[in-house]
Amino acid sequence: MKRIHQIAVASVMFAAGFLTASAANSSDWVKVSNNASVPTDFTEAAESTINGVVSIKSYATRRAQQSFGGFNDPFFDFFFGPQYQQQPRQRQQEGKGEEQPRGLGSGVILSADGYIVTNNHVIEGADRLEVTLNDNSTFNARVVGTDPVTDVALLKISAENLHVIPMGDSDKLRIGEWVLAVGNPFGFTSTVTAGIVSAKARGIGGSSARRGQMGIESYIQTDAVVNPGNSGGALVNTSGELVGINTAIYSETGSYVGYSFAIPTSIVTKVVTDLKQYGTVQRAVLGISFRELTPQLAKEKGVTAVNDGIYVAEVNDRSAAMEAGIKEGDVITSINGVAVHNTAQLQGEISKYSPGDKITVDYIRDNKKRTANVTFRNSEGTTTITKNEGFSSLGCALKSVSAETRSNLQIKYGVEVTGLTAGKFRDAGIKEGFVILMVNNEIVTTPEEIEDMYDAIVKSSDPDKVMFISGLYPTGRRVYYAVDLSSESGNKK
Question: In 3-state terms, what secondary structure has residue 472?
Fold first, then answer.
């Protein structure tokens, strides 16, 4: 049985004058349009991109590795190689809390002043991130923001005048067009391979599910050779423009056997712009449950006007779809003029927009074509901008749980941990995605309530300053944590 493997173990960077305007202007990232007539001489494209590729090494202390499953991770051998199998275990026994290598991947420089994009799975669970440029300069990186839904992470290093790969437009890629994958497979630096675009808007079903997350999967599929170490690396066209971030391979063995997958820049630019400006992705929600229209379903429902599309199984209350008049039984055929034949295409198109954006949706009802004007909402059913506010001492970013999460976990309230850095939460073993239901036996519904409780605990005269936290992980597993605040000075840092 073939498996989808994430490919964290090499390096690539890309830059494109990092956008400082609002997320709604994410199209400003696209500086150059694709040129389909360029010859198949890859030398210029290769030479112009290798300096925009970086290696990303992740490190974690023994304590942090244990809280993340340590070296029992089923992908450990895939990330590190068998030569690391015994060494880290021996070192763990030697010194508690000693820093150990955790993984190796790639990144792409987004701006000359040090913003770097990579895969979330490259940096997940790390206590320290080390970025090495093509000239062997090394920097410690901080995490600006992460988005497990798209497997994108944004990092920052303190550097200037970095080499930036021009941003291309992945929407203009054509099937059969030549592309290059740039990265550090198996630790071999500045490696370039070539292939063609095999498919667009490809869903591969499993890379997100394996990680226990709902994910957006609308990949560029290529036959460019990609191996462990290419995760987070650059996919570029023959003009040397970035069109995707390499993220996964389809393989029985964990090594390349024919197909690789990249997140298109149409999604990446939206995600990293939001992460930089807001700390979290402003994700548009249509508000429907759906199925792909198959010949069997079409026959069952009497649909004859189209052969494929998105069959609306249910319309959520207070949703953008309900407001626009979309109903159960409709078949969506395009989003803002772009055809959607399957789930991957629907996800890819909607992921480009933010709450409050106005678009058109074409659909079939009673075998007649109709058009609706839709104003996207967020998961809370509003068009307001949300920000990820964190506590530096606790080392976490929090947000109220979405309606979707409440429905999935069958809960009525809670606060989700959406990001972690070094701090009290990570020390206690809390992981990203954990939903806090109660703190010290009190129900919590907003991040502000947790902040107020934190203030009250650290300012109290009680020598035992502890946050007793109970909650759920996305799998439904209930967990209890004790977060020791006794070392706090009485004020937030």
Answer: strand
* Placement of tokens 């058009």 in the chain: 371
pLDDT at residue 74 is higher than 70: no
Tokens describing residue 236: 């570029």
Which pLDDT tens digit goes with each residue over 192-207?
Answer: 999 999 999 988 765 4
- CATH fold of 1-277 reads Thrombin, subunit H (2.40.10)
- The alpha carbon dihedral of 242, 244, 245, 249 has a sign of negative
Lowest mean pLDDT, pick from 233-237, 246-250, 338-342, 348-352:
246-250
Q: Report d(CA 380, CA 148) in Å as an integer.
A: 19
Q: Give dist(CA 454, CA 493) in Å, integer.
A: 12
Helix (H/G/I), strand (E/B), else coil: 79: helix
> Count of H helices and E strands in the chain?
12, 26
> Which active-site residues does the annotation give?
121, 151, 231
Which helix (H) or strand (E) is 180 found in, with range?
strand 178-183
From CA 316, how far away is CA 329, in angstroms rounded?
13
> What is the residue whose two structure tokens read 């599910």?
209
> In sequence order, which residues have a C-beta less than 8 Å from that of residue 48 and are 6 or more positions away?
165, 240
* Whole-number Å distance between alpha carbons of 314 and 307: 20
* Tokens coding 278: 């807001």
In the chain, ranges of CATH 2.30.42.10 domains: 288-375, 389-484
To which residue do tokens 């494109």 refer?
A: 16
Q: What does residue 437 show for φ and ψ, rounded to 5 degrees?
A: -100, -40
Give the span between the Cα atoms of 220 and 33, in whole angstroms. 17
Cβ neighbours of 196 (radius 10 Å): 15
Tell me the per-residue pLDDT of 403-441, one tens digit each, with 9 for 90 and over.
Answer: 878 888 889 999 998 877 777 898 899 998 899 999 999
CATH topology of domain 389-484: Pdz3 Domain (2.30.42)
Give the E-state strand segments of 256-300 in sequence order: 259-264, 288-292
- In sequence order, which residues have a C-beta less than 8 Å from that of residue 266 and are 6 or more positions away? 169, 170, 171, 348, 352
| CATH pick for 288-375 out of 3.30.200.20, 2.30.42.10, 3.90.25.10, 2.70.98.10 | 2.30.42.10
pTM for this model (two decimals)? 0.69
- The Cα–Cα gap between 271 and 117 comes to 10
